[in-house]
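Long-time lurker. I teach an intro course on protein structure, and each term I like to show students one example going from raw sequence to a predicted 3D structure in token notation. This year I'd like something fresh instead of my usual example. Would anyone be willing to generate the tokens for the chain below so I can use it in lecture? Attribution to the forum is fine with me.
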Amino acid sequence: MSLADSNPLGLGTSWQEEILLHDGRTMVVDRSVVRGGGHEIGQKPPYKEQRLSFTMPDARQKITWEDHFSQNLGSSSFLPKLLDVHNNTAYLVVEPMGCLSYNKWGRPNPPYVIFKYVNSQWQLISLQELPAEIKTVNMISSMPDIVVERAGTSFMTKEMIQKIVSEYRQPEHQTIQREPLAGSNNCVEHIHTEKHKWLSIDWFSDQPNHEGCLKVCEREMVTPT
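-- Reply from a regular --
Happy to contribute to a lecture. Here you go:
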């Protein structure tokens, strides 16, 4: 199924965002999503595939970032939050989408996963490596396809995006936080097993002793750490 097939108007499946860079320049980003997979009745399927592409302001280089379906999540992994350019290098800040992704990506606090475009590929970097000038969220990060559908346009201006971001409740969704946050995430810790299942930490903390924990590990095929 193509992106356009899932929405006759094409809204919410592919659109453009005019993002404001830290130095005052703007850049147009092409975004698209595909939904699919298991979901509750009355709810939309999760994001199955995501893609964004843009042309670097100075080098005129076309760059693409993709987030594919992950079998152990049942969806794709991230929600893009911020895209910026510093010293002719592109940086992308994303947030793990849902508790399983949050656990898969190491339960980051603050809740960001950061990529830097180097040697024609996206490389994972630490928060400390993100330039200090890059700090303001400039993309639609919460249910972007639904937001675009409701806006009734396939081109979201920087003013529209700024208004949307200003209405996010948590400060970490408006500005990149540099220090660990207290109580910002209520996701229970999970462990991924060799049976491709996710077990909450309660499976182990509820055991009466160490031997009980080891039995859970053996039964569920978990490698003890």
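Some talking points for your students: The radius of gyration is 19 Å. Confidence is low (pLDDT under 50) at residues 1-11, 202-207.
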